[in-house]
């Protein structure tokens, strides 16, 4: 396929509100979300005060943010459902705003095509998923019908997506520092308790909140908060640095079962793929993709079909607007304007 046929994945150039230094700071935090400003300043060759000031400006404008969320890889702890919602005409945004108030619904997209809304739901069990989708979605005014797909695997999610602003040496230095930070963590707590829940709530609002502020807000000692935060981030929580979202699309696809794992890994390795979920239902793959232009909705599909001939895309939807992303409430430009703190499904 030629460059004219398919322009390729989204890069830093598509984020017009960010200059070169901004993109460098964001890329650094994508690799090591809680990296000290001194380290990021050394990597970028910039004064740490300047780096911190740039980040605070981006964060205040809702252009970028760091958040924490529960690890979603263990189905014994977290059951994730993707819910397609059909609404009555003209009320999709009202329905989305109502659903966004619930912490158990971390992601909500308004979409074109065969569904009006796609929402992600996280619960402790299949039974709870059934009760929540029945109770929450059916009681919401304007909902006409829902279809729930249970996720059985998540080969990749948005936390792995990167800008391309740093070189290999810079990236490796930050990655090594992040790895060392994880290695120094203490053993995993035996159970999820009230302090864990409070720290998740605080870190989902600001993933870079200082240990001192976490201690004050959780009414726990600094040493306890330091130890527990390190343990949670090493075992139960993930951190990610997100950006105001550009054009995206969702693909509902299927592949024969014997090729599912191989296909999902290939999809997870494509730079433009933000997330890839394995689901039990009429489609066994749901892929969320960032694109440059509307033309790329079909160009990307053609590109993937050539690379993965066994994959059949049965439906696709352009995302008209992301209303909520990992607890963050987004405006029409994809900027963060609020947050609904996340809860761990065990809480």
Task: Please supply descriptive tags for the structure shown above.
alpha+beta, 36% helix, 8-stranded antiparallel barrel, 12 strands, 347 residues, globular, 11 helices, disordered N terminus, two-stranded antiparallel ribbon
SSE blueprint and pairings:
Elements: H1 20-31, H2 37-44, H3 48-60, E1 64-70, E2 79-87, H4 92-99, E3 107-111, E4 117-123, H5 126-139, E5 143-156, H6 168-183, H7 194-205, H8 211-218, H9 222-235, E6 237-243, E7 248-254, H10 260-268, E8 273-280, E9 285-290, H11 296-307, E10 312-325, E11 328-330, E12 336-339
Antiparallel strand pairs: 1-6, 2-4, 2-5, 3-4, 3-10, 5-8, 7-9, 7-10, 8-9, 10-11, 11-12
Commentary on this structure:
With 347 residues, the protein is α+β, with helices and mostly antiparallel strands. The protein has helices at residues 20-31, 37-44, 48-60, 92-99, 126-139, 168-183, 194-205, 211-218, 222-235, 260-268, 296-307, and strands at 64-70, 79-87, 107-111, 117-123, 143-156, 237-243, 248-254, 273-280, 285-290, 312-325, 328-330, 336-339. An eight-stranded antiparallel β-barrel has the order 2-4-3-10-7-9-8-5, surrounded by four helices. A two-stranded antiparallel ribbon has the order 1-6. Helix 1 packs across helix 3 (48-60) and helix 2 (37-44) packs across helix 3 (48-60). Residues 1-7 have low confidence and may be disordered.
């Amino acid at each position: 396929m030629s460059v004219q046929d398919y322009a390729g994945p989204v890069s830093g150039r598509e984020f017009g509100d960010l200059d070169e230094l901004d993109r460098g700071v964001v890329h650094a935090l994508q690799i090591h979300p809680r990296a000290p400003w001194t380290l990021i300043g050394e990597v970028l060759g910039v004064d740490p005060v300047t780096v911190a000031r740039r980040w605070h400006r981006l964060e205040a404008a809702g252009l970028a943010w760091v958040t924490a969320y529960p690890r979603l890889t263990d189905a014994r702890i977290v059951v994730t459902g993707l819910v397609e919602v059909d609404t009555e005409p003209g009320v999709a945004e009202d329905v989305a705003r109502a659903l966004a108030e619930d912490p158990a619904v971390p992601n909500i997209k308004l979409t074109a095509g065969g569904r009006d809304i796609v929402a992600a739901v996280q619960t402790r069990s299949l039974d709870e998923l059934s009760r929540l989708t029945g109770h929450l979605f059916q009681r919401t005014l304007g909902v006409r019908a829902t279809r729930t797909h249970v996720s059985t695997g998540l080969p990749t999610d948005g936390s792995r997506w990167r800008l391309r602003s740093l070189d290999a040496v810079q990236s490796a230095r930050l990655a090594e520092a992040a790895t060392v930070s994880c290695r120094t963590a203490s053993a995993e707590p035996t159970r999820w308790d009230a302090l864990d829940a409070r720290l998740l709530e605080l870190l989902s609002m600001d993933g870079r909140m200082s240990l001192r502020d976490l201690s004050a807000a959780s009414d726990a000692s600094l040493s306890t908060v330091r130890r527990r935060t390190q343990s949670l981030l090493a075992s139960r929580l993930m951190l990610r640095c997100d950006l105001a979202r550009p054009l995206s699309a969702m693909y509902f696809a299927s592949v024969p079962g014997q090729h599912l794992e191989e296909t999902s890994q290939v999809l997870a390795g494509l730079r433009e793929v933000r997330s890839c979920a394995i689901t039990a239902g009429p489609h066994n793959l749901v892929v969320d993709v960032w694109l440059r232009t509307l033309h790329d909705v079909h160009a990307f599909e053609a590109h993937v079909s050539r690379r993965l001939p066994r994959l059949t895309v049965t439906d696709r939807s352009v995302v008209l607007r992301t209303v909520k992303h990992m607890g963050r409430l987004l405006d029409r430009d994809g900027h963060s304007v609020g947050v609904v703190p996340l809860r761990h499904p065990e809480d």
